[in-house]
């Protein structure tokens, strides 16, 4: 009996885990975001697009200015890694890593080392 149940259980486990979307594919799309400071106050608003070819574009603004960036992205463990190339000035290239928490297919949070959070909600 155990010889018949065990293979079926393993097969069911493999099927259920293969149906879950990878974090990479879950991030693909258009997102609205808000950057919160450590006190939970909104500092910056923005929109981002993560493409399936692992490129991204983002535009953010606050009450006094706005900026745009482009670059490449990938997920490593529980981190979102961004290699940013400033859209207007390639000398502003930088490598950034954020702690990533996927809440569901339409919401995720990035946390910086200083405690500031960026909360994302899917637009499309």
Please characterize this protein's 3D structure:
The protein has 124 residues and is an alpha+beta fold. It has a single domain (23-122), classed as Lipocalin (Beta Barrel). The protein is 19% helix and 52% strand. It contains 2 helices and 8 strands. It has helices at residues 2-19, 23-27; strands at 29-36, 42-50, 55-61, 66-76, 79-86, 94-104, 107-111, 117-122. The chain has an 8-stranded antiparallel beta barrel with strand order 1-2-3-4-5-6-7-8. Strand 2 and strand 3 (55-61) form a beta hairpin. The chain is globular. The chain starts with a helix and ends with a strand. Mean pLDDT is 80; it is low at 1-20.
What's the short version?
With 124 residues, this protein is α+β, with helices and mostly antiparallel strands. It has helices spanning 2-19, 23-27; strands at 29-36, 42-50, 55-61, 66-76, 79-86, 94-104, 107-111, 117-122. A hairpin with a 4-residue loop joins strand 3 and strand 4 (66-76).
């Amino acid at each position: 009996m155990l010889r018949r149940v065990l293979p079926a259980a393993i097969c069911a486990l493999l099927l259920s885990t293969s149906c879950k979307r990878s974090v990479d594919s879950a991030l693909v799309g258009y997102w609205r975001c808000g950057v919160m400071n450590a006190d939970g106050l909104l500092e910056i608003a923005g929109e981002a697009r993560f493409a399936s070819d692992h490129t991204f574009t983002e535009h953010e603004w606050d009450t006094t200015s706005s900026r745009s960036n482009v670059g490449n992205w990938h997920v490593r463990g529980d981190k979102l890694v961004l290699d940013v190339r400033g859209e207007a000035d390639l000398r502003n290239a930088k490598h950034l890593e954020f702690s990533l928490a996927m809440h569901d297919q339409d919401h995720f949070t990035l946390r910086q080392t200083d405690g500031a959070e960026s909360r994302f909600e899917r637009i499309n």
